[in-house]
Amino acid sequence: MDLRFKLNGREQSVSIAQDRRLLWVLRGELGLVGCKYGCGEGYCGACTVIVDGAAVRACQFPAREAAGREVLTIEGLAKDGKLHPLQQAFMEHDALQCGFCTPGMILAAYSFLLNNHKPDRKAIIAAMEGNLCRCGSYVRIVAAIQAAARRMYGG
Fold this sequence. Notes:
It is built from five helices and five strands, in the order ββαβββαααα. It has 155 residues and is α+β, with helices and mostly antiparallel strands. It folds into two domains: 2-76, Beta-grasp domain (Ubiquitin-like (UB roll)), CATH 3.10.20; 85-153, [2Fe-2S]-binding domain (DNA polymerase, domain 1, Orthogonal Bundle). It has a five-stranded mixed beta sheet with strand order 2-1-5-3-4, sandwiched between helices. The longest helix is centred in the last third of the chain and has 16 residues, at 138-153. It is globular, with a radius of gyration of 15 Å. It starts with a strand and ends with a helix. The mean pLDDT is 97.
């Protein structure tokens, strides 16, 4: 099938098998490797991308469902060579350690912050509980998200 969608702000068209998952279209056909294959079951969050503003697990998301929609990957978050406040905060708070979970963490946090401009620690922890970090950087991840929220929305 021919899949047409907006990817990181640009129109995209790619031929795919009907049962292809978005993760493999992004990584294989389109060469965007920020989206990681972790558990393959939708539990770890390493494959998180944004579809129409909502965080989704790309390993479970049928690529055909992206038709006509907007998909944002970690590669599209920075604008004009300037890191997004979440990316900057993750660096400043050393919230990335090995970096494998980082793209999914940042995109899950991005989706969360779209509707939660001044989240408290408890809300951040609840929102991020579906994204796993094997390095155990959770304290720094929460601090980075809090800092990014302040940068993005004030306060």
